[in-house]
Every structure is written in structure tokens, then in C-alpha cells.
């Protein structure tokens, strides 16, 4: 866990050896303490160098050890011994020096860092080689350094605090960092370090720390998929994709073209009309040029080809269909692709919730069909839902997952059902928000409650951004609203359950959100982003409630959070029961990377476990009793079962899901 060598007869070289990131596990700390003692006590040793194996210095404390009691020698006394030692210690840094790894570098008297190191502030060594060995160390001890205190420190920290509170609502760590900076600038080292330890202890024992550690491992677990057949992430070889084609140059298609081209994959982009093709082409080129400029590289425009003819696709490795969300149209595209593309070409769909297997069924290669559900904007959002149809082969799934990772996405394998995972859960979440409007809340009150919880955007601001017409079109196609709805249907019921027509009423007024300058909010112009409460919406709500004799009531933020987030998690439990998601961590990763769920809350499933499953169950029972015509408030059988089993930790829920029909 740490190797000790004597080089040039007088330099002790200590190499951290805990692959893959040399995390400071108890074994590493123990080995380091032993090696440092050996080096400091050996009269032949005049200097010490600490480095990390595998081109990485140190990825910090071993996060896996946080779950239980601390074992082995604590880190701080070890760092103090290095700092106070009488022999110069040099940190030879490559790759990363994170957290405790950063602290280790800081207490070394000198640092030499490879120029490609990220995550590190350089402490520049004045001369090359070990000519420092005989020099006094006092000026090199971090405890002896003086921190200049700017005269306007309070004002400076005030501004930073405001910024942090805006950008990281409710997050503890950044505010603690500001307090640590204040301590470093205004206190002697010993008091400053003591203050920092107090701040660290508060954070370390917080629910937010547990949520962030959970997210870290959940993100890495999400890529480890398994099929009922036993095929899985580490025994299914992905195909190499050198060439791809995108059908449809709408917002999603353009983003997908950019995502592929900027990682070196040649892309043929197809549109149905010359004008659409030309517009899409100009937008893609502009996006790639801006992206390349930002990254300081040249735009890979030579990888692009734009065409009106599917015939040009005959040799590509993979196609992603991104046409209008209409099943009949998609089926025609897949039938055509079947004829044009060579037999081994993978055919993928970017549908946001339609039946992937129905599309597979119209092709000559159902085993090569898979969903690749990108999130808008596709070249920015990191989430990729890889939707496994029952006939998708393990090689096809492995290829889609690997391609997602190559594009810098967080790929999550999910089963095939309406809305898959993310959008299926979004429906009850948004339904609750509109029901709360009927009952007395306003869009801005609901959004504020959700944004105070930690969401970057509340549900109504998010809908205005995405465009209200998207959902409206889906509801019309599903027969929930529009001229085809049976007039005998009571306006507030559909299929025997409660239905809120307010979003339809808003759309019928041409209020589609930011794009039209009016939606749930009003904006200074079409395309504007500065959302202001709109009195016309307030009037619409008042008129609506009086028309249906709804007596508005004061609704607490707590009720808003419980009804929206417990309904969200409840659908997550159903998704686990249906085998559409392999584990709760996958659901949480989808919501962290696709829907802006605040990371310091862990995700909808982790949040439910932190609130306490018994509490979630009790509140859902309460709300379902109050609203019996809202099925998604009825507690799921899995939630009840987990509570009956004593509410085990989220990481063990899989053991209680005996789903024989897992889609994954
Ligand atoms: C006060 C002080 O602050 C306290 C005391 C602390 O120090 S708190 C801890 C502070 N340290 C961190 O926050 C660093 C967290 N790690 C990272 O940011 C990244 O890992 C990376 C270093 C930039 C490398 O990225 P990568 O993309 O090349 O590889 P990977 O896929 O991410 O990771 C490869 C494998 O290593 C595992 N791993 C990475 N870092 C780890 C860590 N610190 N502890 C335990 N395991 C870790 C990870 O789970 C994965 O495992 P598996 O999935 O293969 O089984």
C-alpha cells in the first residue's frame, strides 16, 4: 500500500500503491506512517520524496471507509508529522491530488507537479533536483507561512457568500469553505486549523456528506448493467463505432451530431427537406465552432456530411433516429433504414418514451435496435438512458453504453416502458404540481419551494424552458385533451382518475413558455429568460377555481415538497418492482444528471431513504386518503414491503425486489 526505497543512497522514496487512485485507506496510512518513521530515523536519509503509482499522486481519503468507524492511523497526525519533520519532504505530483491527497501535498515542504496535473495549486520549487536537502525548513512549513489578510476581507467574503447561496442553494460545504478561508486569513495557524477541523467534522457527519458519497458511487455503479440472460457490462464486448448517421436535424438531432463529431466520429446528418437540412447544417457548424473555441481545439467539421438521401447511410456503423415524436413516422424511418443500411448496422432511437420494441419489430434486425434517449440540449446534458428492448442483444446494449461514455455521457441502462425511467417518474411529479395549483398554490410558490429544496429550476420554470407545447402535443395524441376528447368526459377526469386541464388551457392561449414570451410566467420578449409572475395566470387560476367551486386553501411548502417528491419516489419504487431499473442508484443517477435533482440530496430514492421510508409511507397514505382519485399517490407494494422489513438501507433494496420479469 506504500513502497519504501532508498535512492541515490540518501533519498527515501515513498510510493503510494493503492490502485486505481492511491486513496488514503487505513492500510495506506499505516504504511505511510511506518515509511515516514523509517525515513526520519535513518541517518543516511537526507530527504524524502512521496509519489503515487500509476501516474496519479492521490485521490484523497478512501471514501469507502466513510460508511463505518475509522480504522487505522488517523490522517491528520500523519500530516502533522510530515510537516514538522526535520528532513525535507517533496511531493512529486502527477494526475490528481484531491482532498486528503491535496492536504498531503500541502504539508510537504516542496512540491514538484507534472504540468498536466489538474486539481492542484502549485507550490513552486525554486530549483531543480534535491539541492534543498541541507536547507532550513522553517520557511517551508505551511504552519509557518503567513496568510495576507486583504483589507476588504468582509466585503469580499460577503459577495462570495451571496454568489454561493445563489448557485448552490442549501449546500453546506461551499459556505464552510468560506468560513475556513476567513479563519485562515484572520487566525494564527493553530487556531485556523482547529476551526477548519470543526467545520470538517460538521460536514463529515451531515446528511449532505452521505448523499454526496452515495452519488459518487451510484454514478459509477450505474454503468454496471446486467441482463436476465446473465450478459452484463463486463462480459459483453461493445462494437467500435467509427461512423454514425443522425436522422432529423431538430434540436435533439443537432445536439447529437455535435456530441458525436466532437469525439472524432464521422457523422452523416439527414433531413427530409433542403431548407431544413441547410438550417440544421449552419446551426451544427456554429455549435461545433463555438465548442471548439471554448476547448481551444479546431472544430472537426471534416467529419460531417449533410444529405437528403438515406442511401448515403448504407455503410455507417450506427444510426440514431431523432425525428418528430410520432410512432408512425418513426416506424417508416426504421423500415427504410432496414432496407438501406448494411445488415450489421445498429439502429437506435432517441425517442423520449415510445415503445422501442415496436420499432425493433418493423426492422430485419430487432437484436440491433436499442433506445438512446438523450436529454435536451443533447450536447450539454450528461444523461443518456440506454433503453433495452426485450430483443436488444447484449452487444448492442454494450455498444450504446460505451458510445455514451465516449461522448462524455453518464449512460444508464433502463427497461422499455412508456417514459422509460425519467419521464415515467416525471408525470406524477408534474401532476402533483398542477393539482396543487387547482387547490390554491401559485406557480411561483411551487417553484420557490422546489428551488429552496435545491432544484436549479422549479417545475413550472423548467416547463417554460422546455416548451409547454411539447407536453400538450403528447396529451392530445394520448386523447387526454383536444377536439377528439369525448364531450361526455367531465373536464377534470380522464380514465376514471383526476385530471387537471389547466396546462391545456394555458396552451390554448398560445402560451408555450419562453419561446412565446408567455407561459406559466411572463418574459420581456419571446425567447426571454427572465421569468416574472403573470397576473393573467393568477386570473386564470381564480376563474378556474370558481368555475369548479374549488375553495383555494393555503398550501405549505412542506406539502408541496412531500406531494411532488414522494409521488416521484413512489413511481420509482414501481419502476424497481417492474424491473425497468436495476437498482435505486440508477434512478437517482437519472434524476441527478437528467432532471437537476440536487446532488446534496442524493436523488429521489436516496432522499426518501433519508426522510425515512416509514414517514414517506405515512404521508403517501395520508395524501391518497385525501385524493383517492389519484392512483400515483397510493403507496407502492415495494415501499410497504421495505417498511415492513424495517426500512433497510437504499443499497440493499435490490435484495427485497424479487422481480422475475426484470427487463435488465
Ligand atoms: C478532508 C478531505 O477532503 C477528505 C479526507 C477526503 O479526502 S474526501 C475524498 C476526496 N477525494 C475525492 O473526492 C476524489 C474522488 N474521486 C474522483 O474524483 C475520481 O475518481 C478521480 C480521482 C478524479 C479519478 O477519476 P476517473 O474517472 O479516472 O476514475 P473513477 O471512475 O472516478 O474512479 C476509478 C475507481 O476508483 C474509485 N475511487 C476514486 N476515488 C476514490 C476515493 N477517494 N475513495 C475510494 N474509491 C475511489 C472509484 O469508485 C472507481 O471504482 P470502481 O468503479 O472502478 O470500482
TrEMBL record:
| Alphabetical list of PROSITE patterns matching this protein | 3HCDH, ENOYL_COA_HYDRATASE
Tell me the Gene Ontology biological-process terms attached to this UniProt entry: fatty acid beta-oxidation
- Pfam families, from UniProt? 3HCDH (PF00725), 3HCDH_N (PF02737), ECH_1 (PF00378)
Would the keyword Lipid metabolism turn up in this protein's UniProt record?
yes
Q: Where is the 3-hydroxyacyl-CoA dehydrogenase C-terminal domain?
A: 419-523, 560-651
Does the record's keyword annotation contain Protease? Answer: no
* Keyword terms of this UniProt record: Fatty acid metabolism, Isomerase, Lipid metabolism, Lyase, Multifunctional enzyme, NAD, Oxidoreductase, Peroxisome
Q: What is any one of the record's Gene Ontology cellular component terms? A: peroxisome
Subcellular location field: Peroxisome
Q: Drop me one GO molecular function for this one.
A: enoyl-CoA hydratase activity
The metabolic or biological pathway listed in the UniProt record of this protein is: Lipid metabolism; fatty acid beta-oxidation
Q: Which residues form the 3-hydroxyacyl-CoA dehydrogenase NAD binding domain?
A: 244-416
According to the UniProt entry, what is the EC number of this protein? 1.1.1.35, 4.2.1.17, 5.3.3.8
Spans through the membrane: none
Give the catalysed reaction(s), semicolon-separated: (3E,5Z)-octadienoyl-CoA = (2E,5Z)-octadienoyl-CoA; (3Z)-hexenoyl-CoA = (2E)-hexenoyl-CoA; a (3S)-3-hydroxyacyl-CoA + NAD(+) = a 3-oxoacyl-CoA + NADH + H(+); a (3E)-enoyl-CoA = a 4-saturated (2E)-enoyl-CoA
Q: How does it assemble?
A: Monomer.
Which family does the UniProt entry place this protein in?
Answer: In the N-terminal section; belongs to the enoyl-CoA hydratase/isomerase family.
What is the name attached to this protein's record? Peroxisomal bifunctional enzyme
Q: Which organism is it from?
A: Cyprinus carpio (Common carp)
Amino acid at each position: 500500500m506504500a513502497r519504501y526505497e532508498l535512492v541515490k543512497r540518501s533519498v527515501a522514496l515513498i510510493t503510494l500503491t493503492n490502485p486505481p487512485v492511491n486513496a488514503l485507506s487505513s492500510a495506506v496510512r499505516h504504511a505511510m506512517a511506518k515509511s515516514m518513521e523509517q525515513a526520519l530515523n535513518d541517518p543516511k536519509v537526507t530527504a524524502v520524496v512521496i509519489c503515487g503509482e500509476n501516474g496519479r499522486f492521490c485521490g484523497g481519503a478512501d471514501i469507502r471507509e466513510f460508511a463505518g468507524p475509522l480504522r487505522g492511523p488517523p490522517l491528520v497526525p500523519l500530516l502533522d508529522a510530515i510537516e514538522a519533520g526535520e528532513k525535507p519532504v517533496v511531493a512529486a505530483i502527477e494526475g490528481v491530488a484531491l482532498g486528503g491527497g491535496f492536504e498531503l501535498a500541502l504539508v510537504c515542504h516542496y512540491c514538484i507537479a507534472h504540468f498536466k496535473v489538474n486539481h492542484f495549486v502549485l507550490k513552486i520549487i525554486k530549483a531543480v533536483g534535491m539541492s534543498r536537502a541541507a536547507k532550513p525548513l522553517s520557511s517551508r512549513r505551511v504552519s509557518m507561512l503567513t496568510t495576507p489578510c486583504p483589507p476588504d476581507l468582509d466585503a469580499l467574503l460577503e459577495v462570495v457568500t451571496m454568489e454561493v447561496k445563489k448557485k448552490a442553494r442549501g449546500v453546506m460545504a461551499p459556505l464552510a469553505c468560506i468560513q475556513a478561508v476567513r479563519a485562515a486569513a484572520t487566525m494564527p495557524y493553530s487556531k485556523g486549523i482547529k476551526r477548519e477541523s470543526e467545520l470538517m467534522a460538521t460536514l463529515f457527519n451531515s446528511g449532505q456528506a452521505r448523499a454526496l458519497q452515495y452519488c459518487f458511487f451510484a454514478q459509477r455503479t450505474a454503468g454496471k448493467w446486467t441482463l436476465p440472460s446473465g450478459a452484463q457490462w463486463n462480459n459483453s464486448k461493445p462494437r467500435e463505432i467509427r461512423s454514425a448517421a443522425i436522422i432529423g436535424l431538430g434540436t435533439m438531432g443537432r445536439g447529437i451530431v455535435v456530441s458525436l463529431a466532437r469525439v472524432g466520429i464521422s457523422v452523416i446528418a439527414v433531413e427530409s427537406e433542403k431548407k431544413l437540412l441547410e438550417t440544421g447544417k449552419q446551426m451544427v457548424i456554429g455549435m461545433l465552432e463555438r465548442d471548439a473555441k471554448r476547448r481551444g481545439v479546431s472544430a472537426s467539421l471534416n467529419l460531417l456530411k449533410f444529405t437528403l438521401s438515406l442511401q448515403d447511410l448504407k455503410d455507417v456503423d450506427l444510426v440514431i433516429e431523432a425525428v418528430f415524436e410520432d410512432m408512425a413516422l418513426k416506424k417508416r424511418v426504421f423500415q427504410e433504414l432496414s432496407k438501406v443500411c448494411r445488415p450489421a448496422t445498429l439502429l437506435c432511437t432517441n425517442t423520449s418514451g415510445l415503445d422501442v420494441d415496436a420499432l425493433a419489430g418493423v426492422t430485419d434486425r430487432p437484436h440491433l435496435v436499442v433506445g438512446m434517449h438523450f436529454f435536451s440540449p443533447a450536447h450539454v446534458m450528461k444523461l443518456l438512458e440506454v433503453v433495452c428492448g426485450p430483443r436488444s442483444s447484449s452487444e448492442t446494449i454494450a455498444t450504446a453504453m460505451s458510445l455514451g461514455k465516449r461522448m462524455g455521457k453518464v449512460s444508464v441502462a433502463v427497461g422499455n416502458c412508456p417514459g422509460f425511467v425519467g419521464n415515467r417518474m416525471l408525470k406524477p411529479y408534474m401532476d402533483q404540481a398542477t393539482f396543487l395549483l387547482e387547490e390554491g398554490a401559485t406557480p411561483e410558490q411551487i417553484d420557490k419551494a422546489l428551488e429552496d429544496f435545491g432544484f436549479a429550476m422549479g417545475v413550472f420554470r423548467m416547463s417554460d424552458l422546455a416548451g409547454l407545447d411539447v407536453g400538450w402535443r403528447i396529451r392530445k395524441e394520448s386523447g387526454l385533451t383536444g377536439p377528439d376528447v369525448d364531450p361526455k368526459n367531465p373536464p377534470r377526469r380522464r380514465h376514471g382518475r383526476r385530471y387537471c386541464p389547466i396546462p391545456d388551457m394555458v396552451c390554448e392561449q398560445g402560451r408555450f413558455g419562453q419561446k412565446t414570451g408567455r407561459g406559466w410566467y411572463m418574459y420581456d420578449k419571446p425567447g426571454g429568460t427572465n421569468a416574472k409572475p403573470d397576473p393573467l395566470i393568477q386570473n386564470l387560476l381564480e376563474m378556474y377555481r370558481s368555475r369548479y367551486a374549488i375553495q383555494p386553501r393555503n398550501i405549505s411548502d412542506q406539502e408541496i415538497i412531500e406531494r411532488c417528491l414522494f409521488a416521484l419516489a413512489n413511481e420509482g419504487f414501481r419502476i424497481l418492482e417492474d424491473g425497468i431499473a436495476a437498482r435505486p442508484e440508477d434512478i437517482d443517477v437519472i434524476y441527478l444528471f437528467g432532471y437537476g435533482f440536487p446532488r446534496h440530496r442524493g436523488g429521489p430514492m436516496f432522499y426518501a431513504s433519508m426522510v425515512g421510508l416509514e414517514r414517506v409511507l405515512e404521508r403517501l397514505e395520508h395524501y391518497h386518503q385525501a385524493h383517492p382519485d389519484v392512483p400515483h399517490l397510493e403507496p407502492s407494494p415495494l415501499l410497504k414491503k421495505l417498511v415492513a422489513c424495517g426500512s433497510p438501507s437504499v443499497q440493499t433494496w435490490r435484495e427485497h425486489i424479487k422481480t422475475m420479469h426484470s427487463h435488465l
